[in-house]
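@channel sequence for tomorrow's demo:
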Amino acid sequence: MKKRRDPEEISPEVREMLDGMDSVIADLKAGGSIDKYTVRTARVDLEPRAYGPDEVKAMRARLKASQPLLAKFLGVSVQTVRSWEQGTRPVPTIAARFLDEVDADPGIWTRRLQPVEK
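structure tokens (generated this afternoon):
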């Protein structure tokens, strides 16, 4: 069974969206009209920042992760992480986007990388 996310870990934007969806569902269950609901368009910057060797090393240090642990966490090989840190290969967009998410709230990810109690 999937563990439910702590409501404190949800961004205000996601919380607003979920609250809005709850209102729509409640109105539908009550047999009311949903004509009053509108769709808003928001501009978002989806371009991840560029991660050079120093930024990858800094992120790894921030997470207190070894190269093998960061590699496993990101789903890449240890050699890939090494090549990013040595500057021989660029960090691909999807990895950079995920690193942006980690950078936005490193506490969540640091806790996830803690050893599991047996």
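heads up for whoever presents: The chain has a mean pLDDT of 87.
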